[in-house]
């Protein structure tokens, strides 16, 4: 069984790919803004929005599906340097390295990237280099602090809400995403850490209670003093 996830966050050429466009909904997961046949949204989509889409939609579904191999049709129209209507977004080439590194955690690292498109040679070369660098296991530059702290714009949040409304009935992992759609990456990571600490504390308490109960059962009760 295969799963198709299209992350465009806009209406690039040829204009297809709405969240409910074609096929069984849970077999095709599409992220797309509803603002006409142009990539030139205002404000434009940037690293923040694509990282949020991966965090809340792409990776939860991909992990739940647990693929045997991941095939990526790598189109770089969203890289800064492509003017509308063929682009108009402001993603950095480095962002594609971050996204590739996340995908490498799937399918035991069995990941294939095939160059699909893009129209600016410099942008294509830079983004391709970032992806290959990630595949080679090279250390990536840290995500800039301003990207970590910035929240995704309203258009992106609306797109992700549409996808969650359609797909959450098929994918249980998306139920946790709804509460963090509008969060910055830093806020989302902090929430995840706090939730993990809470779960760990509850697990430790449960183990401790079981240990106390078992010890109480094993220890003989003191006999009542004779009158």
From TrEMBL:
Pfam families: Hist_deacetyl
Higher taxonomy: Eukaryota, Metazoa, Chordata, Craniata, Vertebrata
GO MF, one annotated term: histone deacetylase activity
Sequence ranges assigned to domain Histone deacetylase in this UniProt record: 9-135
GO CC annotation: histone deacetylase complex
Protein name as catalogued: LOW QUALITY PROTEIN: histone deacetylase 4-like
Transmembrane segments: none
GO biological process: epigenetic regulation of gene expression
């Amino acid at each position: 069984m295969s799963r198709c996830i299209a992350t465009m966050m806009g209406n690039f050429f040829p204009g297809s790919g709405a969240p409910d466009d074609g096929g069984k909904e849970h077999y095709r997961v599409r992220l797309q803004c509803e603002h006409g046949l142009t990539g030139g949204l205002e404000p434009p989509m940037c690293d923040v929005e694509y990282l949020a889409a991966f965090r809340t939609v792409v990776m939860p579904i991909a992990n739940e599906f647990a693929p045997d191999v991941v095939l990526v049709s790598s189109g770089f129209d969203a890289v800064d340097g492509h003017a509308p209507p063929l682009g108009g977004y402001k993603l950095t080439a480095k962002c594609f390295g971050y996204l590739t590194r996340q995908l490498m955690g799937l399918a035991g690292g069995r990941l294939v990237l095939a160059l699909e498109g893009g129209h600016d040679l410099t942008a294509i070369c830079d983004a391709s280099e970032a992806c290959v660098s990630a595949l080679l296991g090279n250390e990536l530059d840290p995500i800039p602090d301003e990207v970590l702290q910035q929240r995704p714009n309203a258009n992106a949040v609306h797109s992700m809400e549409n996808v969650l409304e359609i797909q959450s009935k098929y994918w249980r992992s998306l139920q946790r995403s709804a509460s963090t759609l509008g969060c910055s990456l830093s806020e989302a990571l902090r929430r995840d850490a706090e939730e993990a600490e809470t779960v760990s504390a509850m697990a430790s308490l449960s183990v401790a209670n079981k240990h106390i109960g078992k010890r109480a059962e094993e220890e003989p009760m003191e006999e009542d003093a004779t009158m």
